[in-house]
């Protein structure tokens, strides 16, 4: 089976944007660490900066933004490419681009310091991102099982996440 790259234009764009956001998020984390290390060393010449035990709110926010993106990456890329190959590459790619754009906003909504985080602001990104993932995975499952029911998609997008949340 040969795949036509032009047919997968949108999933490729989404994947490349994902890679750029990964690098951007990692870069933010690294810059924060080096800036805080330099600042700490000026103030405490005899002690090294311990980023893991310092509980510095800026370092915690940078770590959270990067690690949250990283933990979402495997489900996202899996859902993106399963839907692209087995359902509809155009729809998968456009949903993927939207997902990445939402994730690009996450660090801003999280804030510069973790102690000032507003969960309602962060939910503006996390909730739609989860819905996109559930939709893509549900679409793949529905296509694989050849189910045509709208109820299935409703359950998978609304009922399943609620059930999983209540079991956790």
Automatic annotation (TrEMBL):
It is found in: Membrane. The chain crosses the membrane at residues 122-141, 147-167. GO terms for cellular component: membrane. Keywords: Membrane, Transmembrane, Transmembrane helix. InterPro entries: MAPEG-like_dom_sf, Membr-assoc_MAPEG. The keyword Transmembrane applies. The keyword Metal-binding does not apply. Its main location: membrane. This is Uncharacterized protein. The lineage of its organism: Eukaryota, Sar, Stramenopiles, Ochrophyta, Bacillariophyta.
């Amino acid at each position: 089976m040969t795949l036509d790259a032009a047919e997968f234009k949108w999933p490729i764009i989404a994947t490349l944007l994902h890679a750029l956001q990964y690098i951007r998020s990692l870069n933010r984390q690294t810059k924060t660490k080096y800036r805080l290390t330099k600042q700490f060393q000026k103030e405490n010449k005899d002690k090294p900066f311990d980023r893991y035990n310092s509980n510095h709110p800026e370092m915690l926010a940078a770590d959270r933004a990067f690690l949250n993106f990283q933990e979402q990456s495997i489900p996202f890329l899996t859902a993106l490419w399963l839907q692209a190959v087995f359902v509809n590459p155009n729809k998968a790619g456009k949903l993927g681009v939207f997902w990445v754009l939402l994730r690009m906003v996450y660090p801003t909504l999280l804030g510069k310091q973790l102690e000032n985080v507003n969960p309602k602001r962060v939910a503006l990104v996390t909730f739609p991102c989860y819905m996109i993932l559930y939709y893509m995975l549900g679409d793949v499952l529905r296509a694989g099982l050849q189910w045509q029911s709208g109820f299935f998609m409703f359950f998978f997008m609304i009922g399943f996440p609620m059930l999983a949340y209540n079991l956790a």
